[in-house]
Amino acid sequence: MKIQWTLVVGLIFALIIAIFATVNVDSVQVNYVFGEARWPLILVILGSVLIGFIISFCFSAFRMYGGKRQMKAVRKDLEAAQVLINEKDAEIIRLKNELREQGASKFITEEISGGDKIQIE
């Protein structure tokens, strides 16, 4: 839906620029750093819009590239966290099996730091 709205707004903007440019067909003097020329105002307007589009496209491509890099880093961190979780789960299972092999009672209550009690099944 967002793409459709973007397309509609872009088309309306292009239509406004086209109408504005066709109304302004007089020749104007364009001063460059290295010289000057007379061009139709329509070309100056459309050229300015094109240059603005290219600059905007470059900035959004740069932002998109940065977002992809950030997403890749976050995925890497997520995978590392998942590996750590799997290791901890395996350690918990190993410790529970070790307790069962040692003939521990079904419920074992231990004191841990802070005075809290835990039960291990």
Automatic annotation (TrEMBL):
Matches recorded under Pfam families: LapA_dom
Taxonomic superkingdom: Bacteria
One GO term describing the cellular component: plasma membrane
InterPro entries, alphabetized: LapA_dom
Keywords for this protein: Cell membrane, Coiled coil, Membrane, Transmembrane, Transmembrane helix
Transmembrane parts of this sequence: 41-62
Name used for this protein in its record: Uncharacterized integral membrane protein
Lineage: Bacteria, Bacillati, Bacillota, Bacilli, Bacillales
